[in-house]
Amino acid sequence: MADKGKEHLSLVVCGHVDAGKSTTTGHLIFKLGGIGEREMAKLQAEADAKGKSSFAFAYYMDTCKEERERGVTIQCNTKEFFTENYHYTIVDAPGHKDYIKNMITGSGCADAGLILVPAEKGGFEAAIAKADPKMGVDEGQTRQHARLLFLLGIEQIIVGVNKMDSCDWSEARYNEIKDEFIKMVTQIGFKPKKVPVIPYSGFNGDNLVTKSDKAPWYKGWKANLNKDTVIEGWTILDAL
C-alpha cells in the first residue's frame, strides 16, 4: 500500500485523557503493516518491563521517556501510514488539559479529526462534561477538542467509541453515547449526518481494521458527505 503518489491527508486523533488514542493509533498502524514484528516485540518487552503491558501499541506513538513512564501523551507525535486510497500523516494529540496548546498546534494543519471517547461508565461522562466552576467540574477535554477542531476549520470528524469491551459491547451504552455525542457536536456546528460513530476496541482490535462479531446489533455506519454522496462502512479503517 505504500505509495507516495497517493493523495495525502492529515488526520488528528484527539479526545479526553485515557480515551485510548495512542493505543488505537499504534494498533492501527501495526494492522496495516507499518510496524514490523521485531519492533512490536521490542515495544511489548519494554511495556512488560515497566509493568504496563497494555501500553505496547501506545509506546509506538509515545516515544519520549516521560510519556512512557507516566503513560500520558505530552507532545503531538506524528507517523505516516497508507490505506488503499490515501497517504496519511496521523497526529496523536495529547488529551490532558495541561497540554491543550500542544493539541491545538497538532490540529492546525489537519484535514480531518478522529475523536475517541471511552465507553466506560464515568469515562464518557467526564470526557464531555460541561465546565461548572461552582461545583469544581472541569470541562471535558473531548468537548473542548471538538469545539477547537470546528474553530480550526475542520469540517469532517469521525467518532470512535473505544473500550466497548468495558461495557460488554452493550447496544444501549453505545446508543446512549452516540446520541449524547451527536447532540454535542451538532450544537458546536458540525453536520450530524456527516459524522460516523463507530463502536470498537483499540486494544483488542475489534472493528478497528476488520469487522468484529462481538456486536451483532451493530449494522455499520453511514455518512452523508453531501446531497449526492453517501458512504457506508463498518470499521475505523473504512471511515478513513
Automatic annotation (TrEMBL):
Residues spanning the membrane: none
Keyword Secreted: no
Domain Tr-type G: 6-240
Signal peptide: none
Keywords per UniProt: GTP-binding, Nucleotide-binding
InterPro entries referenced in this protein's UniProt entry, alphabetically: G_TR_CS, P-loop_NTPase, T_Tr_GTP-bd_dom, TRAFAC_GTPase_members
GO MF annotation, one: GTPase activity
PANTHER family: TRANSLATION FACTOR (PTHR23115)
Listed name of the protein: Tr-type G domain-containing protein
Species of the source: Lagenidium giganteum
